[in-house]
Amino acid sequence: MQIKNLKEISINGRRRGILEILPEVFDDMNPESACRRSIEQYREEIRNASRLHVLGFGKAAYDMYSGVRDAIEQRIATATIIIPEDQEIGKVYPELRILRGTHPYTGESTLKSSQAAMNALSDLHRDDLVLVLISGGGSALFEIPEDGISITDISEISRCLMNSDADIYDLNIVRSSISSVKGGKLAGRLFPARVLALVISDVVGDDLGIIASGPLQESRYTRKDLVSVLNKNREHCAQLLENVEKHGKAGELPDENFERVESTIVLKNLDFVNAIAAKIAESEENVINLGSGINGDVDTVSALLTDIMRTVYSLRKSPFWFVAGGETTVNVTGSGTGGRNCELSLRVLDRMRKDERFLFMSIGTDGIDGTSPAMGGIVDTTTRNSINSDEIRECLQNNDSYNLLGKYRSAIISGRTGNNVSDVIIGFYDGQTPGNKQ
């Protein structure tokens, strides 16, 4: 991973220093290395399988396959992955079939690719082994609807729920009910084969039932849970949700579907948070690791993080860095260009005073933040003194955070990273300028 506009946005030494850390961490915490380490525990099962099939989907699927290839190459019967349409790949592997899908919303190319991938797995036996590679983005990139639901229905429902500030749990309860491969239903399609899954987590809490909408995990949600979510969101998505209520399927699946399934999380958000905190600590004395549990609406989270900066400084009386991870949500009311990381950065900026010395950055580890081409935003005292508060609030009302950050050299551009472990937040705070204390 590289920051393509590093020179443009490195307007001071502190910015440049923290931005230069990111590529180092991304290189160290890459999906290929994580999967290469994890596949070793399954070498005997791979060797003993009658046939070995590979199915991968998500933003990191290509790099995950690269990581396991040396351990499985001689045993592969079929290998298919589905990745975003605009994702660039490295080496071409002759045995690997690369299909494309849409993200963040599913579409016709996703459906065609998913059907083709499942067709390659239509004749499985008990002595077959299916290696499934799952990463963030899998919900949009791997999809076959339930009967009575179209791929357009799923896309529009997901878009409406996301824009209405629905959290990932509510979103996935709905997704699982209208998909024939989510909420554990893929496990049923692969039965009776032995299934091993390597998973990169992009959700708070690393819940296997939520990552990519839990295709291999036994669903813990019932029809009652589905109806509860539908009722909660009827105000914003009423017409769309009527079809979900009619055709959605939520409930228990046969236990035998999951008896031969084993999933391992190989990389997660906290790994990145810990690695970045350790890198900063190599040159800075005071670094606070807040973990990877940040979640909630961007406005609420911006208030929380601003309070944390000021409170910690009032207790320590000295400058400090902090690192955190998680995933926020945005209630989209405007038609601008942005994403939750750009918007969180802008909302924190709006809450800071012009005499406060600070830096704040929020990035999506996949490199693409919402509808923008940025991975996130970086703001500091210089930015705060350059932008008028009215301009900030006008952009926030239109959800146009990317364009404002870009105008003031504060949008971080990396392109797709081939990874996805949700979002990372990095901050620095050094109180108020002497003589301006309030």
Secondary structure topology:
Layout: H1 6-9, H2 13-28, H3 31-39, H4 43-48, E1 51-57, H5 61-72, E2 76-84, E3 97-101, H6 108-119, E4 128-134, H7 138-141, H8 151-163, H9 168-178, H10 185-190, E5 194-200, H11 223-247, E6 261-267, H12 269-281, E7 287-289, E8 294-297, H13 298-316, E9 320-329, H14 340-351, E10 356-364, E11 376-380, H15 381-384, H16 389-397, H17 401-407, E12 411-412, E13 423-432
Parallel strand pairs: 1-2, 1-4, 2-3, 4-5, 5-6, 7-9, 8-9
Antiparallel strand pairs: 9-13, 10-11, 10-13, 11-12
Helix pairs in contact: 2-12, 3-5, 8-11, 9-11, 13-14, 14-16
Essential attributes:
alpha/beta; 438 residues; seven-stranded mixed sheet
What do you see in this structure?
- The chain has 438 residues and is α/β, with parallel strands linked by helices.
- It contains 17 helices and 13 strands.
- It has helices at 6-9, 13-28, 31-39, 43-48, 61-72, 108-119, 138-141, 151-163, 168-178, 185-190, 223-247, 269-281, 298-316, 340-351, 381-384, 389-397, 401-407; strands spanning 51-57, 76-84, 97-101, 128-134, 194-200, 261-267, 287-289, 294-297, 320-329, 356-364, 376-380, 411-412, 423-432.
- The strands form two sheets. Strands 7, 8, 9, 10, 11, 12 and 13 form a seven-stranded mixed beta sheet that branches. The protein has a six-stranded parallel beta sheet with strand order 3-2-1-4-5-6, sandwiched between helices.
- Strand 1, helix 5 and strand 2 (76-84) form a beta-alpha-beta unit.
- Helix 8 (151-163) packs across helix 11 and helix 13 (298-316) crosses helix 14 (340-351).
- The protein starts with 5 loop residues before the first helix and ends in a 6-residue tail after the last strand.
- The mean pLDDT is 93.
